[in-house]
Amino acid sequence: MTKRPAYNPPAHLRPETAKWFAEVIRDFDLESHHVRLLTLAAESWDRCAEAREVLGREGLTYLDRFGAPRGRPEIAVERDARLAFVRCLRELALDITEPEAPRPPTISR
C-alpha cells in the first residue's frame, strides 16, 4: 500500500473551516483531485460566510444614487458561494458508502 501525502489546510482558510478541512482529510481516503475539490469547497464556505457577515452588518439593501433601494452585491456572492460549496460536496460524495444510483433525468416540457 502506498502512503498518501499529508495535506494541511490552506493557510487562508478561517480557523473553523481549516479544522473541518483537516477532519475530512483525516477521515477520508482522498486522491489529489479530491483535495482540490475539498479546497474549493472550503474556500466557498468561507466566501459565503464573509458575504453573510457583510449582509448582517449592512443589511440586504442600499440606496442607489437616485434613492432607490437595491440589493447588495453580497447577496449574489453568498448565493453563488453556497451553490459552489454544495456542488463540491456533491462531487466529493463524502457521505456515500455505496455507488449512488444515477440521477433521474430532468423533466422537460
Structure description:
This protein has 109 residues and is mainly alpha-helical. It has a domain at 31-92. The protein is built from three helices and two strands; from the N terminus they run H-H-E-E-H. It has helices at 15-27, 32-58, 73-92, and strands at residues 61-63, 69-71. It has a two-stranded antiparallel sheet with strand order 1-2. A hairpin with a 5-residue loop joins strand 1 and strand 2. Helix 1 runs antiparallel to helix 2 and helix 2 packs antiparallel against helix 3. The longest helix is centred in the middle third of the chain and has 27 residues, at 32-58. The protein is flat, with a radius of gyration of 18 Å. The N and C termini lie far apart (51 Å). The model has no long low-confidence stretch (mean pLDDT 90).
List the helices and strands and how they pair.
Blueprint: H1 15-27, H2 32-58, E1 61-63, E2 69-71, H3 73-92
Antiparallel strand pairs: 1-2
Helix pairs in contact: 1-2, 2-3
